[in-house]
From TrEMBL, chain A:
It comes from the Bacteria. Keywords: Membrane, Transmembrane, Transmembrane helix. Pfam families: DUF3137 (PF11335). The lineage of its organism: Bacteria, Pseudomonadati, Bacteroidota, Sphingobacteriia, Sphingobacteriales. The chain crosses the membrane at residues 32-49. It comes from Pedobacter petrophilus. This is DUF3137 domain-containing protein.
Automatic annotation (TrEMBL), chain B:
InterPro entries: LemA-like_dom_sf, MamQ_LemA. It is found in: Membrane. This is LemA family protein. Its main location: membrane. It is a single-pass membrane protein. Keywords: Membrane, Transmembrane, Transmembrane helix. Belongs to the LemA family. Pfam families: LemA. It comes from Pedobacter petrophilus. GO terms for cellular component: membrane. Gene3D superfamilies: LemA-like domain.
Length: 318, 185
C-alpha cells in the first residue's frame, strides 16, 4: 500500500466509501457498453446472413437501450468524478502539505497563460482545470492543467478542413519569485525552431525587444535558449546556482520544461501526455495506482519551491 | 566584368555589415562596463548608512569601520582607474562581509530593522554586480570572437579593433573561504 495511505485513516475511509460509488458507476457503464456491443454484433451477423431489415431492427434495440443506460449514469459519473477530486485528491493534498487546496473547476486563465510568454503561437482553443494552490513558508504558488491549441484550415474539395494542433498540454506551475524584477526572462528548450530563431536574432536582426542571453553554463546553453529584455536582469535571475537547479529540475521532468520570469512571478510549463487528477472508473480505489502517480506529481511540483530555493529571501523581497 | 562588380559589391556590403556589427558589439561592451560602474556606485552609497547603524551598536568594530570608510572614500574619489576601483571594491566587499559575520556577536544590531534592510540591499547589490560582471564578460567574449575568428580576424586588424580582456575574479574573492580566518579576525 502506498505510503501516503498507510497512516491516513480519513483518506482510507473516503476511498472505501467512494469505492462503492465507483463500482456502481463502473457496473452501469459496463452494462451500457455490453448492450451496445451486442447490438452491433447482431447487426453484423444479420447483415452477413443477408437479413438487412431484421438485422438493423434487432440490433438497434440493444444499442438504444445501451445508450439510455449510459446517459442515465452520466450524472452519477460526473458527481463521482467531482467528489473524487474534492474528497480524495483534496485529502491527499492535505497529507502532502496542510496548506494545499484543489479547485477542480478553476484553472489558469488563458490571459495569464499568454502573459507568461512561454509559447509564441496564438491560442484558438483553451481548456484548464484542477487548480491546486498553496504556500510553503514564504512562497505562494499554484498550478493547473492546461490544454492550449491552435487551428489550421485547409481547403479540400469537400470544403474547409479544420485540424487542431497542440501548443501545450500539461501542467503550468506559477510561483512567487524571490527577487524583484522589472523585465522579462524566458527560458525555452533548445529545439530546432528555437535554435534557428536565436541564431537569427543574435546575428542578423531581432524582431522583438527580447535579446538572446548567452549564458556561461555550457550545459544550460546546450539544453535551453534564453531570451530577456535586460541582459543584466536575466543574469540576476539566472545565477550560476539557479541554472544548475533548473537543469536538475529539467532532468527530473518527463519532457523538456519551459520557464519564464516576469515581474514578481515565475512560470514553468511541464508538458505531460495524460490527464491528471481524474477519477478512475475501471480501476479499484483500494489499490489506487493512478492516485499514487498523481500524488507523486503533486509532490514533485511542491518540491520546486525547495529545489529552486525560492524561500531564500535575502534579496529585499519578502 | 559583371562578376567582378558583383564580388566587389558583395565585399563592400559584407564590410559594412561586419563593421556595424563590430561597432554594435563594442558599444555593448562599453554599455555593460558602465552598468558595473553604476552598480558599484549604488553599493558604495550604502556604506555611510551601514557604518552609522553599526557604530551605534558595536564597540569593538571601530577598526573595521574606519577601514571600510577609508576604502569607500578612495573608491569614490573619481581620479582612480577602473582596475583600481575593482580592487578597492573587492577589498571593501571582503571587509563588509567580515563585518556581517561579526554581527552575530551583537544581537541588538542583528535585530535592528535598518540593519536588516541594509543587509538585504547589500546582498542584492552583490548579486546584481555579479550579474553585471557576467554580462560584461559575455559582451567581451562575443566581441573578441568576432574579431579573432576568420574572416573577421583579417578585417579587424585593418580596422584597428583589438581584443579586450575579460574581468577575472579579484584575488581576494578567489581565495577559498577559511572559517578559521573569519573567526580569528
Amino acid at each position: 500500500m502506498q505510503d501516503f495511505l498507510a497512516g491516513n485513516v480519513a483518506l482510507q475511509n473516503t476511498l472505501a466509501t467512494m469505492e462503492v460509488e465507483r463500482r456502481k458507476v463502473a457496473a452501469e457503464q459496463k452494462r451500457g457498453i455490453i448492450y451496445i456491443g451486442i447490438g452491433i454484433g447482431v447487426c453484423i451477423v444479420g447483415l452477413l446472413l443477408g437479413l438487412l431489415f431484421w438485422a438493423v431492427l434487432a440490433g438497434l434495440i440493444p444499442v438504444i437501450y445501451g445508450i439510455i443506460v449510459l446517459v442515465k449514469i452520466r450524472e452519477a459519473t460526473k458527481a463521482y468524478e467531482r467528489a473524487y477530486k474534492q474528497n480524495v485528491i483534496g485529502e491527499a493534498l492535505k497529507f502532502i502539505d496542510p496548506n494545499l487546496t484543489i479547485n477542480p473547476l478553476d484553472g489558469i486563465s488563458s490571459d495569464e497563460f499568454s502573459y507568461a510568454q512561454l509559447f509564441n503561437k496564438q491560442i484558438d482553443r483553451y481548456k484548464t482545470e484542477d487548480l491546486v494552490s498553496g504556500k510553503i513558508d514564504k512562497t505562494s504558488f499554484y498550478f493547473a492543467e492546461v490544454h492550449a491549441e491552435y487551428k489550421t484550415e485547409r481547403e479540400t474539395k469537400d470544403g474547409t478542413k479544420t485540424s487542431w494542433i497542440d501548443i501545450f498540454r500539461g501542467i503550468v506551475f506559477v510561483a512567487d519569485f524571490n527577487k524583484h524584477l522589472s523585465g522579462v526572462t524566458i527560458v525555452k528548450p533548445k529545439d530546432l525552431v528555437n535554435t534557428v530563431g536565436s541564431w537569427f536574432s543574435k546575428n542578423i536582426f531581432s524582431f522583438s525587444d527580447q535579446h538572446v542571453i548567452q549564458l556561461e553554463n555550457p550545459a544550460f546553453d546546450r539544453t535551453f535558449v534564453t531570451y530577456g529584455t535586460h541582459q543584466i536582469e536575466s543574469r540576476y535571475v539566472l545565477t550560476p546556482a539557479m541554472m544548475e537547479r533548473i537543469l536538475y529540475l529539467n532532468a527530473n521532468a518527463l519532457q523538456s520544461i519551459s520557464l519564464s520570469f516576469i515581474e514578481s512571478k515565475m512560470y514553468i510549463a511541464f508538458p505531460l501526455d495524460r490527464n491528471y487528477f481524474e477519477a478512475p472508473i475501471f480501476e479499484s480505489l483500494l489499490n489506487p495506482v493512478s492516485l499514487n502517480t498523481d500524488i507523486n506529481t503533486i509532490r514533485f511540483l511542491c518540491d520546486i519551491v525547495k529545489e529552486l530555493d525560492l524561500n531564500t529571501r535575502i534579496w529585499g523581497k519578502e | 566584368m559583371i562578376i567582378v562588380l558583383v564580388i566587389l559589391i558583395a565585399l563592400f556590403l559584407f564590410g559594412i555589415f561586419f563593421y556595424n556589427g563590430l561597432i554594435g558589439k563594442k558599444n555593448q561592451v562599453t554599455n555593460a562596463f558602465s552598468a558595473i560602474d553604476v552598480m558599484l556606485k549604488k553599493r558604495f552609497d550604502l556604506i555611510p548608512n551601514l557604518v552609522e547603524v553599526v557604530k551605534q551598536y558595536t564597540t569593538y568594530e571601530q577598526e573595521t569601520l574606519t577601514k571600510i570608510v577609508a576604502l569607500r572614500t578612495k573608491a569614490t574619489a573619481g581620479n582612480i582607474s577602473e582596475a583600481e576601483k575593482a580592487t578597492l571594491d573587492a577589498q571593501l566587499s571582503s571587509s563588509v562581509n567580515g563585518l556581517m559575520v561579526n554581527v552575530e556577536n551583537y544581537p541588538d544590531l542583528k535585530a535592528n530593522t535598518n540593519f536588516i534592510n541594509l543587509q538585504t540591499t547589500w546582498t542584492e547589490s552583490e548579486e546584481q554586480i555579479a550579474a553585471a560582471r557576467r554580462t560584461y564578460n559575455s559582451a567581451v567574449t562575443s566581441y573578441n570572437n568576432s574579431i579573432m575568428m576568420f574572416p573577421g580576424s583579417i578585417f579587424a586588424g585593418m580596422l584597428n579593433f583589438h581584443p579586450i580582456a575579460v574581468l577575472a575574479t579579484a584575488e581576494e574573492e578567489r581565495k577559498n573561504i577559511s572559517a578559521k580566518d573569519l573567526f580569528n579576525n
